[in-house]
Design brief:
The chain is of the alpha/beta class and about 260 residues long. It is about 30% helix and about 20% strand. The chain has helices at about 1-10, 80-85, 90-95, 105-110, 115-135, 155-165, 205-220, 245-255, and strands at about 15, 40, 50-55, 95-105, 135-145, 170-175, 185-190, 195-200. It has an eight-stranded mixed β-sheet, with helices on both faces. A hairpin with a 5-residue loop joins strand 7 (about 185-190) and strand 8 (about 195-200). Helix 5 packs across helix 7. It binds calcium ion (CA) (3 copies) and zinc ion. One calcium ion binds near residues 105, 107, 147 and 148. This is Metallo-peptidase family M12B Reprolysin-like. Keywords: Signal. InterPro entries: MetalloPept_cat_dom_sf. One of its GO terms (molecular function) is metallopeptidase activity.
Length: about 260
């Protein structure tokens, strides 16, 4: 496990630039009320998917720089689970590794010169819930620069799925500060294991983005929304305040813990 951690660190310093040549995807669903119910479409890789355009948090706190001493970053001193737990730990024996590719757009990188450590902290804080409940460990394998194009969140998600389509299996997590990204987060809901899952989260500061990311990856695993009185992070009432799923979604993800391998 030590060698995995080391190669991850080496990978961190090999950013790559995606091409800018893109064709805009026609999207008739722009700006409709696509949160709550979502809309069905086909992703750039031919998968039948549902897309949810999730709203931002009403209480997002903007943090200009990554600062472990800032009150907004309290608890954000994360290191990957494979560094945190000894090899013989019982949790390590049943751990499921999911490779993560962090992709930040030009607006996000311009706003945050520390975007790599910032996104790493968000990812590693968000996966603590998946580790706790499913023994799923997200391991950041690389950081990529990307130019987001599209007039709304769903076009920007499709843009990411096209531009980052060549990455290996895993979760491709987009981070956007594009003013046209009209969502707190957006993701494809897959019916079967797509190999690679795509999502994009708005820059909402570290804490709210962490909540949004957990919710969007829940979509990637095939979760739809819950509504009151179901207490689940897939319910908008709780999306920015709790970090666990209800039992139905819990079982769904448990049964899909081999996805994105
Ligand atoms: Ca991790
Ligand atoms: Ca973690
Ligand atoms: Ca952009
Ligand atoms: Zn959602």
């Amino acid at each position: 496990m030590k060698s995995i951690a080391l190669s991850m660190l080496l990978f961190c310093f090999a950013p790559l630039m995606f091409g800018q040549g893109l064709t805009e995807q026609q999207d008739d669903h722009a700006d409709h009320a696509d949160h709550e119910e979502g809309f069905r479409t086909v992703d750039p890789h031919g998968n039948d998917v549902t897309v949810f355009v999730d709203p931002p948090s009403l209480t997002a706190v903007y943090e200009p720089h990554y600062d472990p001493n800032s009150p907004h970053f309290q608890g954000y001193d994360e290191v990957d689970e494979y560094e945190r737990f000894p090899e013989g730990d019982e949790r390590m024996m049943r751990a499921v590794t999911v490779d993560v590719y962090i992709v930040a757009d030009e607006e996000y990188r311009a706003r945050h010169s520390d975007w790599q450590s910032r996104c790493y902290q968000i990812v590693e804080a968000a996966d603590n819930a998946y580790w706790r409940d499913f023994s799923i460990n997200w391991v950041v394998r690389g950081y990529y620069s990307w130019n987001s194009n599209g007039n709304n969140a769903s076009q920007i998600l499709a843009d990411l799925a096209r531009d980052a389509g060549g990455l290996p299996n895993g979760l491709v997590m987009g981070f956007s500060a594009d003013s046209r990204f009209n969502a707190g987060g957006i993701a494809y809901v897959y019916n079967g294991n797509p190999g690679t899952g795509f999502s994009v989260c708005l820059d909402q500061g570290v804490s709210s983005t962490t909540y949004a990311l957990r919710h969007e990856i829940g979509h990637n695993y095939g979760c739809f929304h819950d509504f009151d009185p179901v207490v689940c992070l897939m319910n908008y009432t709780y999306a920015y305040s709790i970090d666990y799923f209800d039992s139905a979604h819990d079982n769904l993800i448990q049964g899909r813990d081999n996805w994105f391998q």
